[in-house]
Amino acid sequence: MERTLIKELKHKNEETVRICGWLGALRDQKHMQFLIIRDHTGNAQVVHEKATNSELAATIGGITLESAVEITGRVILNPAVKLGGLEVVIESATVINKADTPLPLDESSAIETRLDWKFLDLRTPQNLLIFKIQTAIENAMRSFWKSEGFIELHSPKFMGSASESGAELFEVKYFNRKAYLAQSPQFYKQMAMAAGFDRVFEIGPVFRANPSFTSRHDTEFTSIDVEISWIDSHEDIMQLEERWLHHVLQKIEGEFDEEIKATFGADVVVPNLPFPRVTMAEVYEILDQMGHRVERGEKGDLDPEGERLLCQHFHEQTGHEFVFVTEYPAVVRPFYHMRPEDKPYLTKSFDLLWKGLEVTTGAQREHRYDILTKQAKEKGLSLEPIQYYLDFFRFGCPPHGGYGFGLTRMLMVMLGLKSVREVTYVYRSVSRLTP
After folding, report:
1. What is the pTM of this model?
2. Residue 192 pLDDT > 80, yes or no?
3. Within 13 Å, how many C-alpha atoms sit on residue 132's CB side?
4. 118-423 in CATH: which number?
5. 311-338 per-position pLDDT tens digit
6. Which helix (H) or strand (E) holds 360?
7. CA 20 to 30 Å from 71, out of 41, 106, 191, 407?
8. Which CATH class is domain 6-97?
């Protein structure tokens, strides 16, 4: 008999069906047995009257929680049943794989225990929903990019030199020499600009040897990267990103708003366009007035509390969850960020903050070979290891720019969760290399 998914049971009244899933609950009463069977589409109540088949009753009574089972039975409409107003009257039960008991985790388990037993933790409906949403997010992103004429890339993850700086690099043995895991596809998406691809994106893994234990950091994560050519300034990139996010959040709000609200208590807000914009110089003034001082000079970047307060300020002033922060000091930005001719101490760059957290870094890139090499030297970089990159700009590279966006941060902020650990399929950190 063909398998019936639980979501399809409502169309099978009075039919005999075969459902396959996991035992979520068992109430073994004097005369009746009630089972909750779960598959990836939902939960169903299965009932058995003990007197009708004592052998089957014994089989059911011995099934442990989270065992993989196969149930055959007849679908009966029953408005009193909360799970879809129906139940399955069991005819046979087969234990496909019996779960050990006791289970190594429950709803009260700490996050590290949940990460140790990730495959069990993922069985919960809320975790399944996270990855359904993630799938829908990526589909929405791709539909936007397709409509805008983008090309998808898959850049290499082994690199012979650093893509941004010598810090936070994972060194690996590559045959008889050293290689590094890619921190970002930055150089390669710029190579696509030099190749005339015009508009590209990539969704793929990146690696950061960051010895941080905060709720927003991980050593491997999925990065969303975009690059476009023939721009006039970083404003073109911000306009692209805000339209892209508006499209994605509109799709998610339309498909998952009720489930997200019921499961996570969060609202998906489709943002108005344009997003607010504020220069870093203006940020210093706003935060000073709020009693929070951000260091200038070589440390002229926002700290987590500054990000939170700035978003709070703009939400109160405009009702907006997003804000672009522009014109970061050159000392805190990579060498390939373009600098305004009249303000060479700044960059044509931006961060996007969402609900108090940075989710994007972007910029117009420096495409002029002589200026790019000068800026690399100013940052103390040796040109020889990155000469292959510098060569991109020797043979007619157009003005271009782009941004990088963290997928797990997006999910964490959207769903109102506290850590990227909660939304990463298999998490990697300083101390975690398993499962």
Report:
1. 0.94
2. yes
3. 16
4. 3.30.930.10
5. 999 999 999 999 999 999 999 999 999 9
6. strand 357-364
7. 106
8. mainly beta
